[in-house]
């Protein structure tokens, strides 16, 4: 019986043939020939590393180990990556009529085993749970010297007598440590036993005591005594292992660990970076058996293993050198059916195991990392996030006490800087990296989240460029030297917009020398880029590829480097042009929406400015400046002025709402729902609908008249003696039908109008 013992792991179902066994891994959360490998990442940090954003995920803290996956919420922010686990009662809960003889007790269920929670907590840098106790004549810890009236129980089923914001072993609340309690004779606000409501709230942050599994309350049975409590979800940040690294500075240096015990199944995974042509990642020897991973040449990684049947080697050849000082991922696995090696996203090398012979891997010497027992072929470079069968090896702690090896490894941005988008800057950290979105029009952990807002007809956002010196009204060309710091020989402009209104003024940049750049929507919905430079005069670039006032999101990029101008709309190149002038002199301001100082505008721009901009603008970037983001995020410190209504919103979600909703009623505050008699595009739609409806009604009426006349003519020939009588009746009938047709025509037009408003 090849399924006895069952070598399918994690609940995989075993089946067999005459020659081998098979594992069905469906619904186990694991994969591979023996269901050994978890399909989930080990932490929220690993999901963030893949470019994921906040959401619910399963994490498997011990990888291929015995613990199952745990459902968590990953809150991936710019600063920290938080992992949160909810329990069965995170709301504020009221308590009455509890005393020492009949205490109130609540047990917390996290929908997971304690071992899973402990693994998550132990892997994190920091964990916390909020503890809040609201009280009215209900004592909490009975400080300073009494027996507590409330306590909580932690992971080891231990009773804890300190409250949130205090430290283990100190029977106090946060206000006691801060010396800010309502009554300084007590160390908790609630211990003052007052008739009015107060509270003691703080964070429980000693990892070894978390999570909170139980709370007990015993002082709400006196007259007017009442309490309410809240224990928040378990929250942790930081993955102590994902960025855990060691730098090997000499070929003779290495780290050693206890033997690797993996008789039947073994998996090894890590990241490395090096500039050396060859070196040993790790080696573990037995009497005859061994396991070894090395870089043999700049393009070759080899996994060697012997379980007593002779050496087996799996080699992956890379088309590009791997000693490029960039992080590369290696995963090697061995089980009863296969030996495999994976490097980055290159094709996996798989070798089938022999059907007969030895199959248990027996190792008894120390595990060497970064070298060998013979101190030859050592590794020069960095190894990070080393896992053996899901267990994490603390390279940094070992490196602290080993000569030739340093904890940590700098230079993460060289490998992961491409994860920072839209002008975000990669910033090195001791454990990993972060994306600095200061000079980007976007935000979020990867500078990918749009910053957008709704504009109404009179809304204006003006970013004022700092003047290097006072400016006189009659500035001559010779005075241009004072603006040397404000001369721009290039513009990198990008923004997205969504509107149903034309004409509109989207963006306007002007200088102290009456030069300007304007982006407007013309009356017919076409997009115009208008440049006025002193030597070239006024240049107008019109993009007629459609009506851009169509309630869809459009992306505009305007790049001018020296004399060359490139304009892209919706990722399609529309315009290329070469200027004779190469720079703007003394930029004064950049305006989104309506320009309030409109005296110097040319007629076309002034006409568009009369309507301003009504719609949604998103992620506006001008060189290293993000004016819309500055107005929404830093209005008090940025040199930006906002006039009119500016409401933060998501342009993308507005467009999705339009697609998903066939009929939408807009309130008067919605810029897209406004009706304006001055809107030429709207009036055109109305008048076109009326004309088409009228023409159709008239044509149908004429056809009926012709049929009636022909019928009447035939009828006269057959019954001539009744012609006079028929004529007397026909006129009022025709009059009535004509009147009805006119009513129908009016109803048709009015119905068209009503459909537009809906």
From TrEMBL:
Q: Which CDD domains match?
A: EGF_CA, LamG
The UniProt entry, under SMART domains, shows:
EGF, LamG
Where in the cell? Answer: Membrane
What are the cysteine partners in each disulfide bond?
Answer: 382-409
**Principal location listed in the UniProt entry:** membrane
InterPro entries this protein is in?
ConA-like_dom_sf, EGF, Fibrinogen-like_C, Fibrinogen_a/b/g_C_dom, Laminin_G, Neurexin-related_CASP
What residues does the EGF-like domain cover?
1-36, 410-448
Membrane among keywords? yes
Coiled-coil ranges (or none): none
The annotated topology with respect to the bilayer is:
Single-pass type I membrane protein
GO cellular component: a single term = membrane
Domain Fibrinogen C-terminal stretches: 35-87
Question: Pfam families this protein is in?
Answer: EGF, Laminin_G_2
Residue limits of the Laminin G domain? Answer: 244-409, 471-651
Q: Which PROSITE patterns match?
A: EGF_3 (PS50026), FIBRINOGEN_C_2 (PS51406), LAM_G_DOMAIN (PS50025)
Q: Which UniProt keywords apply?
A: Disulfide bond, EGF-like domain, Membrane, Repeat, Signal, Transmembrane, Transmembrane helix
Transmembrane region(s): 690-715
UniProt cross-references to PANTHER family, sorted A to Z: CONTACTIN-ASSOCIATED PROTEIN-LIKE 5, PIKACHURIN-LIKE PROTEIN
Q: Which family does it belong to?
A: Belongs to the neurexin family.
Protein name as it appears in the record: CNTP5 protein
């Amino acid at each position: 019986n090849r399924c006895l013992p069952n070598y399918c792991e994690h609940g995989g179902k075993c089946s067999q043939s005459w020659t081998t066994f098979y594992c069905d891994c469906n619904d186990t959360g694991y994969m591979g020939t023996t269901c050994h490998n978890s399909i989930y990442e080990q932490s929220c940090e690993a999901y963030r590393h893949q470019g994921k954003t906040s959401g619910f995920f399963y994490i498997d803290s011990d990888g291929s180990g015995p613990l199952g996956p745990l459902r968590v919420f990953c809150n991936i922010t710019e600063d920290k990556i938080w992992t949160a686990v909810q329990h069965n009662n995170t709301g504020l809960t009221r308590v009455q009529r509890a005393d020492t003889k009949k205490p109130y007790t609540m047990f917390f269920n996290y929908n997971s085993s304690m071992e899973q929670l402990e693994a998550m907590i132990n892997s994190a840098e920091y964990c916390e749970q909020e503890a809040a106790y609201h009280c009215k004549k209900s004592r909490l810890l009975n400080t300073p010297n009494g027996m507590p009236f409330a306590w909580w129980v932690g992971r080891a089923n231990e009773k804890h007598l300190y409250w949130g914001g205090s430290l283990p072993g100190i029977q106090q609340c946060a206000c006691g440590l801060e010396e800010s309690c309502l009554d300084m004779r007590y160390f908790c606000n609630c211990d003052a036993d007052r008739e009015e409501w107060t509270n003691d709230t703080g964070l429980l942050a000693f990892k070894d005591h978390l999570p909170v599994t139980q709370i007990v309350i015993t002082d709400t049975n006196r007259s007017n005594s009442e309490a309410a409590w809240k224990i928040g979800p378990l929250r942790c940040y930081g993955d102590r292992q994902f960025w855990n690294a060691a730098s090997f500075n000499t070929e003779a240096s290495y780290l050693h660990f206890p033997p690797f015990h993996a008789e039947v199944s073994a998996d090894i995974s890590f990241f490395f970076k090096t500039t050396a042509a060859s070196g040993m990642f790790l080696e573990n020897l037995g009497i005859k058996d061994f396991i070894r991973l090395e870089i043999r040449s700049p393009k070759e990684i080899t996994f060697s293993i012997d379980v007593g049947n002779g050496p087996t080697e799996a080699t992956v050849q890379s088309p590009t050198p791997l000693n490029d000082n960039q992080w590369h991922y290696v995963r090697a696995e061995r089980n009863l059916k296969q030996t495999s090696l994976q490097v980055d996203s290159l094709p996996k090398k798989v070798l089938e195991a022999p059907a007969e012979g030895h199959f248990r891997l027996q190792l008894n010497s120390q595990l060497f990392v970064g070298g060998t027992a013979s101190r030859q072929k050592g590794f020069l470079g960095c190894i990070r996030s080393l896992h053996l069968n899901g267990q994490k090896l603390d390279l940094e702690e070992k490196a602290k006490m080993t000569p030739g090896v340093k904890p940590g490894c700098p230079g993460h941005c060289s490998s992961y800087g491409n994860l920072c988008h839209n002008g975000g800057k990669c910033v090195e950290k001791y454990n990993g990296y972060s994306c600095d979105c200061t000079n980007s029009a976007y935000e979020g952990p990867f500078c990918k989240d749009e910053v957008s807002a709704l504009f109404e007809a009179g809304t204006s956002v003006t970013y004022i460029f700092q003047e290097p010196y006072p400016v006189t009204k009659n500035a001559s060309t010779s005075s241009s030297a004072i603006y040397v710091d404000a001369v721009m020989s290039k513009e990198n402009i990008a923004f997205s917009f969504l509107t149903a209104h034309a004409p509109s003024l989207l963006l306007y940049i002007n200088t102290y020398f009456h030069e300007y750049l304007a982006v407007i929507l013309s009356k017919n919905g076409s997009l115009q880029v208008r440049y006025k430079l002193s030597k070239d005069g006024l240049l107008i670039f019109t993009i007629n590829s459609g009506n851009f006032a169509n309630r869809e999101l459009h992306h505009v990029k305007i790049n001018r480097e020296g004399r060359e101008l490139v304009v892209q709309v919706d990722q399609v190149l529309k315009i290329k042009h070469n200027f004779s002038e190469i720079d703007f002199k003394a930029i004064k301001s950049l305006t989104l929406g309506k320009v309030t100082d409109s005296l110097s505008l040319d007629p076309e721009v002034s006409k568009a400015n009369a309507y301003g901009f009504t719609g949604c603008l998103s992620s506006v970037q001008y060189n290293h400046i993000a004016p819309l983001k500055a107005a929404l995020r830093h209005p008090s410190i940025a040199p930006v002025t906002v006039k009119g209504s500016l409401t933060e919103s998501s342009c993308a979600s507005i467009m999705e709402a339009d697609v998903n909703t066939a009929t939408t009623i807009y309130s008067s505050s919605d810029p897209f729902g406004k009706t304006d008699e001055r809107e030429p595009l709207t009036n055109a739609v109305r008048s076109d609908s009326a004309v088409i409806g009228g023409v159709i009604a008239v044509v149908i009426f004429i056809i009926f008249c012709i049929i009636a006349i022909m019928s009447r003519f035939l009828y006269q020939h057959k019954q001539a003696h009744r012609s006079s009588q028929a004529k007397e009746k026909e006129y009022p009938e025709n009059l009535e039908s004509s009147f009805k047709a006119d009513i129908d025509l009016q109803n048709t037009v009015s119905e068209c109008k009503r459909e537009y408003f809906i």
